[in-house]
Amino acid sequence: MSDDIIGIGLESSCDETSASVVKNGNTILSNYVSSQIDLHKEYYGVVPEIASRAHLERINELIELSLKDAGIRFADLSYVAATIRPGLVGSLLIALQSAKAISYTCSIPLIGVNHLEAHLYAPHLENNTLYFPYIGLLVSGGNTALFNVEGIGHYTILGRTVDDAAGEAYDKVSKYLDLGYPGGPIIEKLANKSLSKPKLFSKLMTDKDDLRFSYSGLKTAVIHYMQKNPISVKEDVAYSFQETALELLVRRVFEAARKFSIKRIIVAGGVAANGRLREILSENKISGEEIVIPSPLLCTDNAAMVAGLGYHYFIKGMVDNLSIDVSARS
Ligand code: KG4
Fold it and tell me: How is domain 132-293 classified at the CATH fold level?
């Protein structure tokens, strides 16, 4: 008999439905992610009601596919993990209720997972030698926060955004410029086409603001600039917006690394898929910091990170009962 521990993870906190089977917390056997972008793009953002319904329609099929692709049956599972917070309540409930059904019918432990912690775990799925501690930057459409991660389940939040998340700023600026949704990849592509690479917006926040972030001022600055200069080149506006937005992320990451004398930095969440962010991070290394960024599929919402993190709770016996609930907050 094999000593392998195989678990299934389910994720539905926002606009991606995902099911994944992971072995021993670090080997992905399958990872199905179904994006709802096409359903939400006409609204330039996620519509909670549409999101929950779409999760409900897709989750059973994704569970079946993930088991089939992993070459296993329900009877081979040792645990089921689901994201329970933070996120859209109606959406979170879909993964959790499915996980409860699997837990009950297969008589296996249920593990509720924090979405932010799961994102910070994502790089472990590709790197078996990723040692603690590290500075973790989580930067997505719903979150922008910096952590000191000392171990699984042991992390301190060092700072977070006081208003919009960085991905949210990308999405809002894209909406204002009428470019499409989600804004991140569209703005990144457009910014790459800027010929003059101008500096149109001032640096965000100062060192007195500790390790916090703020993005609503930049969004307003873009709007004011466009009102004053309606015939500006959108490529240049996209370029300057992106440089300003990313500069704050990079500045904060290195401030935290130096403050805590930690040389390992991991960046996770949808915005971590940005090529220019990767470039600026490596340009700014001055004392041999190691920068780890998961591959794009593991940067955005996915259930592999949920199943992987769930494994560690399972082996520590930190399991939940069927009465656990979801929460919008972290
Ligand atoms: O982590 P994620 O899939 O979902 C949550 O927000 O939870 O992140 C989605 C966010 C969106 O705001 C999107 O515009 C942004 O990540 N994003 C990017 C890029 N790809 C996705 N932002 C900047 N550059 C990108 N290449």
Answer: Nucleotidyltransferase; domain 5 (3.30.420)
